[in-house]
């Protein structure tokens, strides 16, 4: 008779830290992956990610599977910092709404009856935490190449990545905004874009990748055609316009000489299934051995 002792399946070389900010308040759960082995002379490249609970396992395994064969994959090892919440699930919808929403934000009805109101607008506080507290913490755990830091976000996280670029363009050198919610709050992000365009820092050299899934266009996924909510989904698509807005944003940003921006459309993917695809793209971009040059 087969016998076994069940043990937890851990994410390789990854530690978990519940980080209470200096000003107090609820902690963030930080998933920190530091590769084993010798630190590169210049320090490790590092990839920061929002929605850490949902992405950390995929990101670590995508890197480990490819970094062992750099001549074939163009991927090397790096540090991964995934910022999540002390919850059992993949997301904390209430807190991410606040953390990832650009200011000033608004207040919305509860997600469920009897729950708290939903607030947006905390992106500046979240970005300040990353810059002033989290980055020094990571640097105390691993030697970092300050010139090779990337930020990935999906959906609201993609909107946050755009906000971070527009308000602190030197914080990262690579930015990945997957299925960004550009439409949110009547395109409030445009106010920050316009300010950024009028004062692009001298000497900036950055890369931005925006993306959307095939079924974030006007097309419905095959399993959605004929479903009870088909019409509702089509109406929502006319509001979000994820692929259209992301493509146009990439074209507008690519017109800035010091910024290389591109748009990718991923075949067969919807708003949620695009997550692992774009996590891998973030790994490929952040940890590329041979990196593309400027214009």
From TrEMBL:
Keyword annotations of the record: Hydrolase
InterPro entries: AB_hydrolase_fold, Esterase-like, Siderophore_Hydrolase_D
SUPFAM superfamilies cross-referenced by the UniProt entry: alpha/beta-Hydrolases
Keyword field contains Transferase: no
This protein's record includes keyword Hydrolase: yes
A GO MF term: hydrolase activity, acting on ester bonds
Ranges in a coiled coil: none
Superkingdom, taxonomy of origin: Bacteria
Gene3D superfamilies with a match to the protein in the record: alpha/beta hydrolase (3.40.50.1820)
Membership in a protein family: Belongs to the esterase D family.
Protein name per its UniProtKB record: Esterase
Source organism: Mesorhizobium amorphae CCNWGS0123
């Amino acid at each position: 008779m087969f016998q076994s002792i069940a043990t937890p399946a851990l994410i390789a070389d990854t530690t978990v830290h519940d980080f209470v900010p200096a000003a107090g308040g609820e902690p963030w759960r930080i998933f920190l992956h530091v590769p084993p082995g010798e630190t590169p002379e210049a320090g490790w490249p590092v990839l920061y990610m929002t929605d850490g609970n949902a992405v950390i396992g995929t990101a670590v395994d995508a890197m480990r599977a490819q970094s062992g064969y750099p001549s074939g994959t163009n991927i090397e090892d790096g540090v991964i910092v995934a910022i999540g919440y002390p919850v059992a699930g993949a997301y904390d919808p209430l807190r991410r709404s606040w953390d990832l929403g650009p200011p000033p934000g608004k207040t919305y009805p509860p997600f469920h009856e009897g729950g708290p109101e939903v607030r947006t607008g905390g992106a500046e506080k979240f970005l300040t935490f990353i810059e002033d507290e989290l980055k020094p913490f990571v640097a105390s755990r691993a030697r970092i190449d300050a010139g090779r830091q990337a930020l990935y976000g999906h959906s609201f996280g993609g909107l946050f990545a755009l906000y971070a670029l527009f308000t602190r363009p030197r914080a990262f050198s690579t930015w990945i905004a997957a299925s960004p919610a550009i439409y949110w709050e009547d395109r409030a992000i445009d106010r920050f874009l316009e300010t950024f365009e009028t004062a692009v820092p001298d000497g900036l050299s950055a890369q931005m990748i925006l993306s959307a899934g095939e079924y974030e266009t006007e097309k419905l996924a095959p399993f959605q055609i004929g479903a009870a909510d088909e019409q509702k989904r089509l109406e929502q698509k006319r509001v979000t316009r994820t692929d259209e807005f992301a493509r146009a944003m990439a074209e507008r940003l690519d017109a800035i000489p010091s910024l290389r921006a591109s748009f990718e459309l991923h075949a067969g993917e919807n708003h949620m299934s695009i997550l692992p695809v774009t996590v891998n793209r973030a790994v490929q971009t952040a940890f590329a051995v041979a990196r593309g040059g400027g214009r």
